[in-house]
Specification:
The chain is of the alpha+beta class and 164 residues long.
Length: 164
């Protein structure tokens, strides 16, 4: 699951898939409507990979928040924030992320997270099972391909220039 090519644009409720770079910005496609548009460099564009939620100890990447929702909902959709009150949204968020910073994370942020999660899940972009399988196979091949220790030490120093 690669969230680098999925972006949020300030002022738009949905998220977009980056199609290609243009001279004056990006060509993006709405995951909700499928319509393409140009996102100019002057727009505030954030990759979902770079977004994090404030916690009392620092930040937690959005991808990790999505995984917590996915686990809580047993791989299913989160509740639609349109059908929840502010208190219900806060309670839900406390269940998935009890350490979130109550002074910096607003209900509007929580609504976006839930909306984005459901949209990405509908489009098949959030696939934590596939990610877990890939991590397990990487770990097993990493152990098999681990370098053997020998008694010799390698000289990793850079070549010296004698013309100084």
């Amino acid at each position: 699951m690669d969230l680098k090519k999925i972006v949020a644009i300030a002022g738009y409720p949905e998220v977009f898939k980056v199609i290609k770079e243009a001279r004056k910005g990006l060509i993006v496609e709405s995951l909700q409507t499928g319509k393409r548009m140009q996102a100019f460099i002057t727009y505030k564009i954030s990759s979902l990979e770079d977004i994090a939620i404030f916690t009392q100890d620092g930040e937690i990447p959005l991808k990790d928040v999505f995984k917590r929702i996915w686990e809580k909902e047993n791989k299913g959709k989160a509740p639609d924030p349109k059908n929840l009150s502010k208190d219900e949204i806060k309670n839900y968020f406390e269940q998935i992320l009890p350490e979130y910073d109550r002074n910096k994370v607003y209900v509007s942020d929580m609504k976006k997270v839930l909306r984005w999660y459901n949209m990405l899940l509908d489009k098949g972009i959030l696939d934590f099972e596939q990610e877990e399988k890939e991590q397990k196979s990487e770990q097993s091949t990493g152990q098999q391909n681990a370098p053997q220790q020998t008694g010799k030490q390698q000289d990793n120093s850079a070549p010296q220039n004698d013309n100084q």
